[in-house]
């Protein structure tokens, strides 16, 4: 008898299409299971494959059945998603959907930007527009990158609606909540979030800092903490995450202890200078007394 776990894996995979799925991808996945496991999965979908004259009662037959089931499920979900996207676009055009930013929007945007599709393009966001883009008005949020992000932002894909971390501090956050935004607005949300992260990171990396929890440097804000969680998965995006930080931010993040430390160092340097001048004056006085002042005037 087939074990329960492999059969459950098959059923879950067939019933939950993933982005990029094709018949070939599904068939390759199914090839790793035994004939008994594939047959058990077919039974769960109420497909009769065992009969005297059935040509499906073998491993290849079971695979063919499950590939067809996966394709049907995939096509059904794609059609439903296209219909929802079309309906939402019509509602936005008619002004019947609120586009006011919610507390969930930033986290959904971060899921989109750190996804496989966009993570390698993050470094291009700060690039200056070309002459052609300027002539076409493709500046700020109206360039092709942010148009693509805005289009992706409203797609009901599972990976955009899940949290990347199980941290309980995000329990009230729901990235699956979709509010349509223009590319320019999403760019603004990204810049605000990365500025918060850069500030927190500057605090966390100061000399003498030993707090183990990055949240201690986030001033109670969850956005920088979520970016930090994503960077454990996508470390290659670190430069983009701190790229929006103004140069003055590092100065603004200095703590009072650091400021006091600099004052003490400056005071020590001043005292050392005074001491050296006093020692020099003593030597000159001695020489004048010993040999006469005309030699050193």
From TrEMBL:
This is Unnamed protein product. Residues 76-95, 253-278 are annotated as: Disordered. It comes from the Eukaryota. Residues 76-90, 259-272 have a biased composition (Basic and acidic residues).
